[in-house]
């Protein structure tokens, strides 16, 4: 995946050799290290993976209309969850990420894909994303600056669950 930024030990870095490919449709064949929509992922998994006995070699794409709770039984076997932003105006992915991190306890890689722009990255990080596939027509070096955005947050986030008035 091109234009990828990943947080590693709290530091944002450009990833040059990401092994993951994103498939949105019914393309064949489906290699390992592929991110697939929920239904397609489910169709291609063995019974062992679906029961939670074996890790999956494919990641999962959560689209705006998908409910994060449907993933709960598969969270232990997933290597990566990508959340789709079809438009920068569509904010449902922020809520999905927050729910995955807080209610469902997802600890693995959570990647923002789709119409991901510099101005969104600081907010995405606060919601729990730790990798960002910046739109291919934008500069990934410039997008890194977007992660330096907010120095003080008033409300709660995945990173800091206490509101500002509780931090004193």
Structure, described:
This protein has 168 residues and is α/β, with parallel strands linked by helices. It is 21% helix and 21% strand. The chain has an eight-stranded mixed beta sheet with strand order 2-1-8-7-6-5-4-3. Helix 4 (121-127) links the parallel strand 7 and strand 8 (131-133).
Query: What is the annotated CATH architecture?
Result: 3-Layer(aba) Sandwich
Strand % is 15-25%
Helicity range: 10-25%
Shape type: globular
According to CATH, the fold-level topology is: Rossmann fold
Return the average pLDDT rounded to an integer: 88
Provide a concise account of the structure shown.
This protein is α/β, with parallel strands linked by helices.
Question: What labels would you give this structure?
Answer:
Rossmann fold; eight-stranded mixed beta sheet
List the helices and strands and how they pair.
Blueprint: E1 4-8, E2 11-15, E3 21-22, E4 34-37, H1 38-44, H2 47-51, E5 59-62, E6 80-85, H3 92-102, E7 109-114, H4 121-127, E8 131-133, H5 140-144
Parallel strand pairs: 3-4, 4-5, 5-6, 6-7, 7-8
Antiparallel strand pairs: 1-2, 1-8
Helix pairs in contact: 3-4
């Amino acid at each position: 995946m091109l234009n990828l930024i990943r947080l590693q030990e709290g530091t944002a870095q450009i990833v040059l050799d990401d092994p993951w490919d994103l498939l949105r449709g019914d393309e064949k064949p489906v290699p390992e290290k592929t991110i697939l929509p929920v239904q397609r992922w489910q169709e291609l998994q063995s019974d062992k993976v679906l029961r939670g006995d074996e890790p999956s070699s494919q990641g999962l794409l959560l689209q705006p209309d998908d409910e994060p709770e449907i993933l709960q039984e598969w969270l232990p076997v997933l290597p990566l969850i990508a959340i789709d932003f079809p438009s920068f105006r569509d904010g449902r992915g922020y809520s999905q990420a927050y729910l995955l991190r807080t209610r469902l306890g997802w600890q693995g890689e959570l990647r923002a894909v789709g119409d991901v722009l510099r101005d969104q990255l600081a907010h995405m990080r606060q919601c729990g994303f730790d990798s960002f596939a910046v739109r291919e027509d934008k500069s990934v070096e410039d997008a890194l600056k977007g992660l330096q955005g907010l120095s003080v947050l008033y409300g709660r986030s995945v990173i800091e669950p206490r509101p500002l008035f509780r931090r004193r």
